[in-house]
Amino acid sequence: MMLALEMYRSLPRHLAGKAIGARAPGILSGYAAPLRLVTLDRPSAERPGWARLRTRLCGVCGSDLGALSGRTSLYFSPLVSLPFVPGHEVVADLLDDCDDLPAGTRVVIDPILTCAARGIDPCDACASGATNLCARVTVGDVSAGLQTGFCSDTGGGWGEILTAHRSQLHPVPDGYADEQAILIEPMACAVHTALHSGIRENDRVLISGAGLVGLLATLAIRTLTGAGEITVVAKHAHQRDHALALGATEVVEPKEALRRLRRVTGAFLVEPEYGTSYLLGGVDVAVDAVGRKRSLETALQATRAGGRVVLAGMPDSVDLSAAWFRELEVIGTYASAQREAGADGRSAFDLATELVRGDAMSALAKTIATYPLHRWREALDHAHGAGRLGTVKVAFDPRSR
Ligand SMILES: [Zn+2]
Asked: Among 12, 125, 201, 244, which has the minimal tally of Cβ within 10 Å of its Cβ?
């Protein structure tokens, strides 16, 4: 048997709407929370290529909070299987030998449950290495689940034991703290965003939001693309320091973002009598690193005609007038691919493992707050207010009591 947090039902949409609308504290941890601490049978790893892992640390991701608060679009409901143990930002020890990896190896996981993990012939996306675009996330040997942490069969990192397929495992080199290692999966997503964003030499880039997604995107874009000036929109002072250390040219508060970008790009600022302001002219590429209405609208409103807006956070509904009127290219970037175009044959996880070792990333890793599973209510409240509370990541440590 083992301890785990289990998401056992979907939060009714009307409840979610009410609570989010009122910004009620405790939405994630109160009476309506669809999560509970339970004792479960350990997941078994009888399928070929699968192994059991013991969780060392597992992060709380924005997509986890979205699922728990009912904010996630109904679009995703057929792509999960309830009940499930959440958690896909995992660093863990292998309990079984798994092909070439011996038991005891410390690993991080690529959470995508691809055709290989499902024991079926590869779809076109998987065959080309674009595993994040796998078309078969609902079929095969394991239940529906776009990722580990959304699937009822695999377990997740918010439990003591989970299972994973060899195709998901990436050994962690010696010399990495667990707190650095759990940043490798989100960093791999940022690597994918950078390589997929189409940023050209000297493009002016806006990153809308300076939570973990925005900060890691800043580092990945600065390191892996020829971006010119990078402006980061940050709400909180501690985010400003991290963003500058990770490669931002300048950091602005949300309310000053458009005026600042108007000045530096020579754009016109248009102010409708009702509604929010926007630029005619603006940045070449804007990355929405949050996925909320406000952050995405800032990205749309600050991008020049014919420019590009990159959705790096799971998006809310938003006013798309600018995309139509300014002929913006809007592209999504989801998770990371086993073969990244433009990565010289290296995987996003290999690049991410290199990128998380710098001083600025070590400083970021030191702000991670960890909780035992039984303190999940506090942990989720902390994660919900992380930016305000000076943290970039909240994580569970299922080994601590
Ligand atoms: Zn596939």
From this structure: 201
- CB contact burial 190-220 (16+ within 10 A = b; e otherwise): bbbbbbbbebeeebbbbbbbbbbbbbbbbbb
Closest listed residue to residue 241, CA positions, set 359, 351, 380: 359
Cα–Cα distances (Å) from 318 to 194, 309, 315, 321, 333, in that order, read 23, 13, 8, 9, 17
Alpha-carbon span 312 to 289, nearest angstrom: 5
- Quote the ligand 1 centre to 100 CA distance (angstroms): 23
d(CA 126, CA 42): 29
In contact, 55 and 160? CB cutoff 8 Å: yes
With residue 363 as reference, give the H or E element that holds it. Answer: helix 359-365
At 217-273, the pLDDT tens digits run: 999 999 999 999 999 999 999 999 999 999 999 999 999 999 999 999 999 999 999
d(CA 118, CA 166): 11
pLDDT digits (tens, 9 = 90+) for 257-313: 999 999 999 999 999 999 899 999 999 999 999 999 999 999 999 999 999 999 998
Residue 98 C-alpha to ligand 1 middle, in angstroms? Answer: 21
CA atoms within 13 A on the CB side of 297: 14
Distance 44 CA to ligand 1 centre (A): 23
pTM of the model: 0.94
Q: Residue 41 Cα, ligand 1 centroid: separation in angstroms? A: 29
Q: Separation of 292 CA from ligand 1 center, angstroms? A: 29
C-alpha 30 – ligand 1 centre gap (Å) = 38
Mean pLDDT of the chain: 92
CA of 138 to the centre of ligand 1 (A): 10
Is the distance from CB of 356 to CB of 332 less than 8 angstroms? Answer: no
What count of other Cβ atoms lies within 10 Å of the Cβ of residue 375? 14
Alpha carbon of 337 to ligand 1 centroid (Å):
11
From the CA of 350, how far away is ligand 1's center (Å)? Answer: 21
